Amino acid sequence: MKNDAVLKASSLLAAAALMMAGCAAPAAPQARPTPAPPVATPTPAQSPTSEAPAATPTPGDIAAAPKLKVLATFSIIADLVQNVAGDKVELFTLVGPGTDSHDYEPTPSDVAKVADVQLIFENGLGFESWLDRLYEAAGSRARRVVLSEGIDPRVFAEAHGEAEHGHTHDADGKEGRKEEGHSHDEEKAGDHAHAHGEFDPHVWQDVRNAIQMVRNIVQALSEVDPANADFYDANAEAYIAQLEALDEEIVGLIEQIPEARRKLVTSHEALGYFADRYGFEMIGAVLGTMSAMASEPSAQDFANLAEAVKAEGVDVIFLENVTNPQAVERLAREAGIRVGPSLFTDALSAPGEPGATYIDMMRYNARALRDALTQ
């Protein structure tokens, strides 16, 4: 009995202990496993089967990128290109300011430049008669951009036969022909009239043609360097606005010259486009269409031109900045006329001089003509 009482008491104590435990602070909840972070879906750049997108270049990257290398055949074209391309290109010029492109002879360094550039800007129409040989000798792969494309070329008077072959033109510019036959001497004169060919290459002497040349420049630059196309377009449009204003300015200057005195005698036939655009009559050129540095023409040629000058009442002959002054001075003596100021025709002047840019050159020529022909 005693043992039974002890067992019963022990059971009651155990039950009480369990009840006390049930009334105590609740047990800590069982810890849940921390969920694993979601697996990142690979982006196209991370995917092993996708190409990484091109990174947007920073200003530093752009500054470090090599500039497009371009070449202009002579100084007038170089100035047009510079106004469009700005600092986005490395520009080289073969025939510099004050130099006659007709008589240019390439140097070894010029051959290296032609081989190294990506674009070559040329006038065309036979002006750079040496360029094909230079391009081939250099093994160049540069793209050649002919800036006279899109311009209606003017036919040289000598090649056309206007003087030698008795052609006449009516008010509409239509060609007629006198009934007289051609002599052997006349045909010979036409045969060697010009090293360039039939067409006058001096297209830039009409400012409207220079505008077309600028449009050809911006198109080529934008195609080869599309990253800077907006820059080229903006520069071109701003420059074209200046050229349009220049064209109007020249028209106004020439209108100040009495129409009867708008007659030109020059060193060689480089101002035909200028004459056509701004209302001059070309009476003649001492050296015809040959190089401005060529030797003097024959005594008969001098006599014929002096006679024409006297018949037209011309009292001034104009030099060119790349010219043979002896021939001009001789004609002036024989015809009894004065020598006018030197005009810029085939090349710009050196920096700091009056015709150092295309705009300065054309403005200077118009003012010089106005001043000389209103005295």
Automatic annotation (TrEMBL):
Any one GO molecular-function label of the UniProt entry: metal ion binding
GO cellular component, one term: cell envelope
Localization: Cell envelope
Keywords, sorted A to Z: Coiled coil, Metal-binding, Signal, Transport
Biased composition (Pro residues): 32-41
TM spans (from-to): none
Coiled coil: 229-263
Signal sequence extent: 1-27
Biased composition (Low complexity): 42-59
PROSITE patterns in alphabetical order: PROKAR_LIPOPROTEIN
Renumbered residue ranges of the record's region Disordered: 27-60, 158-196
Metal-binding among keywords: yes
GO BP terms: cell adhesion; metal ion transport
PANTHER family: HIGH-AFFINITY ZINC UPTAKE SYSTEM PROTEIN ZNUA-RELATED (PTHR42953), METAL-BINDING PROTEIN HI_0362-RELATED (PTHR42953:SF1)
Family (UniProt): Belongs to the bacterial solute-binding protein 9 family.
UniProt-recorded name of the protein: Metal ABC transporter substrate-binding protein
Organism encoding this protein: Candidatus Thermofonsia Clade 3 bacterium
